[in-house]
Amino acid sequence: MEPDWYSIKQEITSxxxxxxxxxxxxxxxxxxxxxxxxxxxxxYEDIIKHSIHINREFLGIGDYAIPLSSKNLMIxxxxxxxIVVLFANKGNIAQLLSFKKNIKYFAGKIDQFMGDIExxxxxxxxxxxxxxxxxVEKKVAKPIKQxxxxxxxxxxxxxxxxxxxxxxxxxxxxxxxxLCDGQHSFSDIMDLTKQPIAFVFDFLSKQIKTKVVSxxxxxxxxxxxxxxxxxxxFILKNLLKTAEDPFKLLVRAEICNHExxxxxxxxxxxxxxxxxxxxxxxxxKFMKRLGGHYYTILS
Length: 299
What we know:
The chain folds into 3 domains: 110 residues, Dynein light chain 2a, cytoplasmic (Beta-Lactamase), CATH 3.30.450.30; 66 residues, Orthogonal Bundle (Arc Repressor Mutant, subunit A), CATH 1.10.10; 84 residues, no CATH class. Helix content is 27%, strand content 22%. It is built from 8 helices and 13 strands. The protein has a 5-stranded antiparallel beta sheet, sandwiched between helices. A 4-stranded mixed beta sheet has the order 12-11-10-13, with no helix packed on it. A hairpin with a 6-residue loop joins strand 3 and strand 4. The longest helix is centred in the C-terminal third of the chain and has 13 residues. The radius of gyration is 23 Å and the shape is globular. The relative contact order is 0.11.
């Protein structure tokens, strides 16, 4: 049976009609071979293929990548062999995340046509010894920064010093510190202590600032300036060290469907500002300077 890619593409578009704007679709295999693509996505075809290629080993089923922070363009890995790309000219990118509830359904429909993917393995040439040459330093091209849709990255905090008997802390806080052994993630600590995420993040943030605890990424608890809903995220320590002060982060929250900017200074203090109050000129200027420092909050 010949694959009816057009019908599947149209069905995906129809499933997103409640988003309030037209969504354009492309379907590809896990190696970036395009099966069908809406004309509105054609200008981004090379970017899509490149993004699929570099994220192939990192995206799990149900995860997504956002190759362009200034565009509503999302690449979903819906199965081992299948990719669905969504694009919208307007609206909030968080609304495209509603596609996740239909991933299993469309994976079943697409996989039956995708079949086995054969990847040609190039033959290796015979090794010929080369004459010794002087080493020349090469400039390494910086990879395109990708934003992966992970529910909760895994980071393992650890103590920089032993907890003394005379420590001034609550029982709940001491329990948290004992679990900072480099073997338990933030999620593990919340599960084992039965403490809310706000309490754990707030306490560990203070311990990280005073260098009692170390971790590869700082935990932050943000409050949406539009509706006061709370969101958590991690930012890599090295990223904060090398970024401008303050570090600027555009937050697109699926939970409340709002956009806002978080400003984080070197002392890890956070201020937020609603993105809707930016003028078009300010938004354009901000997005150009934003680069890859962008995060999508997941519910």
